[in-house]
Amino acid sequence: MLDIAKLPQAPAERIIYVNGEYRLQSDANISVLDHGLMYGDGCFDAWTGRNGFIFELDPHLDRIYRSIFSLRLKMHLKKEELRAIIIETVRRNALKDFYIKVLVTRGASPEPVIDPRKCGECSVIVFVRPVQTEVSEEQKQRGVRVKVLGEKRIDHDTVEPKIKSLNYLHIVMGKLEAWAAGYDEAVFMDVRGFICECPGFNILAVSGNKLYTPSHDILQGITRNSMISMAKERGMEVEQGFYTLYDFINADEVMITNTVAGVAPVGEIDGYVIGTGKQGPVTACFARTYEEWLQNGTRGTQCFPEAWEE
Ligand code: PMP
Fold this sequence. Notes:
Blueprint: E1 15-18, E2 21-24, H1 35-39, E3 42-50, E4 53-55, H2 57-70, H3 79-93, E5 98-105, E6 123-130, H4 137-142, E7 144-148, H5 169-180, E8 185-187, E9 202-207, E10 210-214, H6 222-233, E11 237-241, H7 245-249, E12 253-258, E13 262-269, E14 272-273, H8 281-296, E15 300-302
Parallel strand pairs: 7-8, 7-13, 10-11
Antiparallel strand pairs: 1-2, 1-6, 3-4, 3-5, 4-15, 5-6, 9-10, 9-12, 12-13, 13-14
Bound molecules: 4'-deoxy-4'-aminopyridoxal-5'-phosphate (PMP).
């Protein structure tokens, strides 16, 4: 249990790490010449935490360092240093349940020009904020309504989707398309009509004793990996491959997953009701287990060891 009385004193305002300093949010800023702002030239990652535990700290760190390497960013902080900064930012915000976001950009350019060689040191920003849900309880109860997007997922021969880059315009546009049509969320296909992922979520399906999920043109989600582990622990068959809309609308259950929302049941895709249209038993079990993992520190790193007692 986490003894709240032993947490550091909460700051009056949120604390954000920016380029070597821990600053009050009202005083946290970066250059208007930053390549992240001008060209979306950078990457990010996000973590969630409960009871002081950061869930899967190292797999997310490994993912952001793979993004950094792939984008040829000249990152000055070693993985261990960024890891310590993330924990310190949580500590300074004295939050028990939180969401963390780390941005790494190519840094500021001397002029508003595209030449990436002219950028200085990478900009590094670490935000910590209280947990907020991306899928409402009401949506989880009735099943998320998903629209198949007209716009296609940017594929691996354009911008590699495994890189969690700052280029999220297609995701913003996808969400806007879904909401304009009265849906809660959406799903991208690739140009050949294979299902990829949702704007900001992975998508998985259950049929009988099998869990299946697209293998290609996706961000390799950490929550998706948790679902795969849970399925294997239950003795389910796990398959990653190429699936069409047919494979998803004929599933017993469909779920979408990400770090912020956790696990959410899909009730409908483009008017096709999935299973009963409500959360199925496997999705319910995975959602419950995932929440337990977050709460009890499974795969977690405790930020306030002085306040945690088994
Ligand atoms: N796909 C995309 C494009 C995402 O941005 C995210 C995270 N927001 C996910 C999938 C889910 O990944 P994770 O479970 O690691 O949050």
